[in-house]
Amino acid sequence: xxxxxxxxxxxxxxxxxxxxxxxxxxxxxxxxxxxxxxxxxxxxxxxxxxxxxxxxxxxxxxxxxxxxxxxxxxxxxxxxxxxxxxxxxxxxxxxxxxxxxxxxxxxxxxxxxxxxxxxxxxxxxxxxxxxxxxxxxxxxxxxxxxxxxxxxxxxxxxxxxxxxxxxxxxxxxxxxxxxxxxx
Amino acid sequence: xxxxxxxxxxxxxxxxxxxxxxxxxxxxxxxxxxxxxxxxxxxxxxxxxxxxxxxxxxxxxxxxxxxxxxxxxxxxxxxxxxxxxxxxxxxxxxxxxxxxxxxxxxxxxxxxxxxxxxxxxxxxxxxxxxxxxxxxxxxxxxxxxxxxxxxxxxxxxxxxxxxxxxxxxxxxxxxxxxxxxxxxxxxxxxxxxxxxxxxxxxxxxxxxxxxxxxxxx
Lengths: 183, 217
Fold this sequence. Notes:
The complex is a heterodimer. Chain A has helices at about 10-25, 35-45, 50-60, 65-75, 95-100, 100-115, 155-180, and strands at about 85-90, 125-130, 145, 150. Chain A is α+β, with helices and mostly antiparallel strands. Chain A folds into two domains: about 10-75, Arc Repressor Mutant, subunit A (Orthogonal Bundle); about 85-180, Glutaredoxin (3-Layer(aba) Sandwich), CATH 3.40.30. In chain A, a hairpin with a 2-residue loop joins strand 3 and strand 4 (about 150). Chain A is flat. By secondary structure, chain B is of the alpha+beta class. Among the domains of chain B are: about 1-75, Ubiquitin-like (UB roll), CATH 3.10.20; about 140-210, Alpha-Beta Plaits (2-Layer Sandwich), CATH 3.30.70. The chains are: A alpha+beta, B alpha+beta. The interface of A and B includes residues 59, 64, 65 and 69 of A.
């Protein structure tokens, strides 16, 4: 999935903010390739992900190719290349969950949201990730939706989770509207 | 100078040279894929260049072995051949064997290795890892067929040798490792059209020009 960068106005400011954050990280770092991973970690810590522009800036700073930066970053699970969604869904594919059909659960989330693992929906509401063991194998298959652990999750439960979010959103919108009316 | 015996043939070599290089220089065939003559640090990833050395418990990859005086080497022992066949079968299980539609047909490194080691190109007892044909990659001028690529890394070596900042890299890891490119997408800003060393060196035609299908040479 690609973020819509053509819509300049609302996104531009965000890009600029990101670029400033990246420059701030780079300013404090020696131009040596040994710093590549610490720099990437710091950028991800600040932005929540590694954008193409950020990786390009890092490559330029360290005088290595953009390819090399991406090659290193894509090797490690800790780096993500899409901004995290408002709601984060982590599907466990550790041994127990894998055996109990975690793959099917992940596939269902992916299909429901139209994105692949590691990606974020275009509206930045949801991001889906695969993780290796969240530490409660007796509850397999498990998915962690935001902070809540969904135990023994069945494909049919997925629809329910999104219905819950939908309700929550409607409720919030209603409160906002009521707030506006009363003020 | 050191003297060593390879397959009952006495040869001389410079001290500190690697054994695979010495064998190749002396016309001794040792299967290899990731090593290229003149390479300083072999990636030692293809697991094909095994040889047996007297006094050692098990076969060793010759590209990682430094020659020493009085070394006695056997490049064709049953144990060596067994390891090489297994390694090649694993490589073939991750390769889409479709020779009649492949531009590398008849000059393909895998075909030559299979012939040398006496195994068929279709590996029946291993699950195939080669996916569907998908030749998209980030590079504007190159096409890459992951189902054909055996990840020998020759293209990365060639790219690093010809370009100050290598453009090709391995991305991701494990089964999803592939060769890819990130960066400028304007062909005019890339040195690639004048180089194409990676396409030239690919032993299995996994890299080619974009726009032209990989199937037709």
